[in-house]
Design brief:
The structure is a single chain. By secondary structure, the protein is an alpha/beta fold. The chain has 2 domains: 13-137, Rossmann fold, CATH 3.40.50; 214-371, Rossmann fold (3-Layer(aba) Sandwich), CATH 3.40.50.11900. It is built from 15 helices and 8 strands. The chain has a 4-stranded parallel sheet, sandwiched between helices. It has a 4-stranded parallel sheet with strand order 6-5-7-8, sandwiched between helices.
């Protein structure tokens, strides 16, 4: 393996891990901080194979995939890695240190910048970004974050429109094509006007799609945030469900996590306390990761008359294992069918598709029997 020399110029060549469409906003923020951004290539089979090769066998898939991201980006010339920190029982808090050690053992030369969650102190986040940027003030760091947030809001508006429309559309490939182009347009938008134009144009195109006459099943997706939001970690489960005429609703979005954990709930209304309240009869303490939210979201979906819930997570994820042990009771007492899918390198697309088809068929039969 080729070791990379440090860049000769003073401008950082920075990269970051992919996680769903969050990369669109992250890249925009880093560019506003006057950094040279080298995003890793889209996650592929090669990315996953690289991560599997160099990570411990017992490590969960998010660690392996992000390791593949970093190695591919370093091979493209990146000399700085941006990674988030963490805390609590979830192993995510150790990811940055483990990845740094592995990469150094492989001979790569780089700097790693870890953005530790500032315990809902937004001013601390701005200072971290200022330190990362190339001669930027706190005010400029704030504007960079604000622009990224604006772009993220546009992206999530498209995501939610796609989630609603895809299962209802007569031509699902048409919806997928418009949505994929919309994400590309959002990535290329360099100012708010361009974001508004890209978002508006593609939402209008989606509104022109012909719809089926019947309402789809509605399934909530709960679980570990990376596995919920990164399609390559879950075989694009949301799109697969849409093709089965099922509306898949994500229980969490990046903006929710940022708002609750980094921005102190200052940007938009937080629903976390409501989810904690929903979970309380079944699980009333923090178990790390998103275990508590998994339980609370499942209860909320049941009370909002969803047809079922699918829990997704990486194999060996302790918080989701704890949540799964509680979901049997939630399913029984709240009268909502639940299925759990764990993902690792041994999972196969055909097997996941078969389980999705069986689960949705069961839900359709249940719904039909209640309608009699």
């Amino acid at each position: 393996m080729t070791c990379l020399e440090e860049g000769g110029g003073s401008r950082l060549k920075i990269t970051f891990p992919h996680m769903g469409n969050a990369c669109i906003a992250i890249e925009a923020m880093l560019e506003k901080l006057r950094l040279e951004v080298i995003p890793p290539p889209p996650i592929s089979k090669k990315t996953i194979e690289i991560g599997i090769k160099y990570c411990p066998e017992f490590a969960c898939m998010p660690l392996k995939i992000t390791m593949g991201n970093f190695i591919e980006a370093l091979e493209m010339g990146a000399d700085t890695i941006l990674m988030a920190g963490g805390w609590g029982p979830c192993r995510f808090g150790y990811y940055a240190q483990v990845e740094r050690d592995i990469l150094q053992d492989l001979g790569y030369q780089f700097d790693m910048v870890i953005l530790e969650a500032p315990d809902s102190r937004a001013s601390e986040l701005f200072r971290q970004l200022q330190t990362l940027g190339q001669n930027v003030s706190v005010w400029e760091a704030f504007k960079a974050l604000k622009f990224a947030w604006y772009k993220l809001q546009g992206v999530e508006k498209l995501e939610k429109k796609f989630a609603w429309l895809h299962p209802r559309a007569l031509d699902k490939r048409q919806v997928e094509s418009i949505y994929d182009q919309a994400l590309l347009d959002m990535k290329q938008a360099k100012n708010k006007k361009a974001i508004d134009e890209a978002c508006g144009k593609n939402l209008a195109a989606l509104d022109m799609v012909l719809l089926r006459g019947e309402e789809p099943l509605k399934i909530g997706l709960v679980g570990e945030i990376y596995t919920v939001l990164e399609p390559m970690s879950n075989f694009d489960i949301a799109r697969s469900l849409g093709r089965l005429d099922v509306e898949a609703d994500n229980s969490i979005y990046i903006s929710d996590w940022l708002n609750d954990h980094l921005l102190g709930g200052l940007v938009k209304k937080s629903h976390r306390q409501q989810l904690v309240k929903c979970a309380r009869p079944y699980l009333n303490y923090f178990v790390g990761g998103h275990g508590l939210e998994t339980v609370g979201s499942t209860v909320a979906y049941a009370r909002n008359q969803y047809d079922g819930v699918i829990q997704v997570g990486p194999l060996t994820c302790m918080p989701e294992i704890v949540a799964q042990s509680v979901l049997n009771r939630v399913s029984r007492e709240e009268n909502i069918p639940c299925m759990t899918l764990y993902f690792d390198q041994h999972a196969g697309a055909a097997g996941i598709q078969t389980r999705l088809e069986a689960f949705t068929d069961m839900l359709k039969r249940k719904k039909a029997s209640l309608a009699i």
